[in-house]
Amino acid sequence: MTGIYMIKNMINGKRYIGKSKNIKRRWYEHKSSSSMQYSDLKHDIKKFGIDKFKLEILEECPEDRLDEREKFYISMLKPEYNIALGGQGSTGHKVSQETRKLLSQKAKKQWDDLPEYEKQIRIKNNLKRPALGHAVSQATREKLRKANLGKKQSQDTIEKRSRIMKTSMLGNTNGNKQVVRLDDGAIFDSIKQAAKETGIHPSGITSAIKGRQRTAGGYQWALVKCRD
């Protein structure tokens, strides 16, 4: 089914509106816990459980009207989980100061909610790209080191850390290249997924990665570097 859908959090009433050429598959992607991409919706699904969320089909429509109808519903309903205005976005899309502040606050909250070992892995990945200017201070690294001294880790934590480390070292094996939004460390499975989740045009993200433009959607982007 092609059309516009809404996901509603039955605990706090927050909503997310999206579009898809295959809503059933898109719903499965939202439910999947394998993605490393973090957002308020993803955070709450992990926090409350997928059974506390309800999918509703707002409208079936042809593919060439998806952008238009998504923008309409986001504008009308003002869903709490959405940041972008919907549609495909555009290269060089400018973000208002108010939106930048909101995104910054959300990114900080998402970062604070990450377990310490995952923060270290993301910092390590970003340190491999010094030319992009995303350096981490010695004080920050020392703080992370001290925070983990003397901590006993459960078997589940150890296994989870191992899986994430393997992912960060080996990269994606399905042919897609993972991309990272450097401003908050959010990782997406591909440029296409990043564009879909953020509303930023994929060509803009590609241009930012290749250095043809400084940012896309107000953010810096890079490929997740695989270990040789």
UniProtKB/TrEMBL annotation:
Record's keyword annotation contains Transcription regulation: no
GO molecular function, one term: hydrolase activity
UniProt KW Hydrolase keyword: yes
InterPro entries registered for this protein in UniProt: GIY-YIG_endonuc, GIY-YIG_endonuc_sf, I-HmuI_NUMOD-like, Intron_endoG1, Intron_nuc_1_rpt, NUMOD3, WH-like_DNA-bd_sf
Domain of life: Bacteria
UniProt entry keywords in alphabetical sequence: Endonuclease, Hydrolase, Nuclease
GIY-YIG domain sequence ranges: 1-83
Family: To endonucleases of group I introns of fungi and phage.
Protein name, UniProt field: GIY-YIG domain-containing protein
Species of the source: Anaerovibrio slackiae
